Amino acid sequence: MKAIWNGQVIAESDETVVVDSNHYFPKSSLVDGFFKPSSTKSTCPWKGEASYLTISVNGKENVDAAWCYESPLDAAKNIANHFAFWKGVEVT
Prior knowledge:
By secondary structure, the protein is mainly β. About 0% of the residues lie in helices and about 55% in strands.
């Protein structure tokens, strides 16, 4: 699977985990240099607290377009330190 935004592959892995129709990519599959930390957080009742990253490619930013459950609740342990995407990021 590949995650593509603004014409660049930003993550690639054969070991994504699908949860709620989202492909979660292992942290190691993210391409260095395209991600910036964000202070945004959200909470899912069964996955726990999500942290977000802003994607920056070729001078354009996609704010909070990647998220991760670093320490998920037990029901979502399989996606710990995996990242999913939205806001126009194409996953193919």
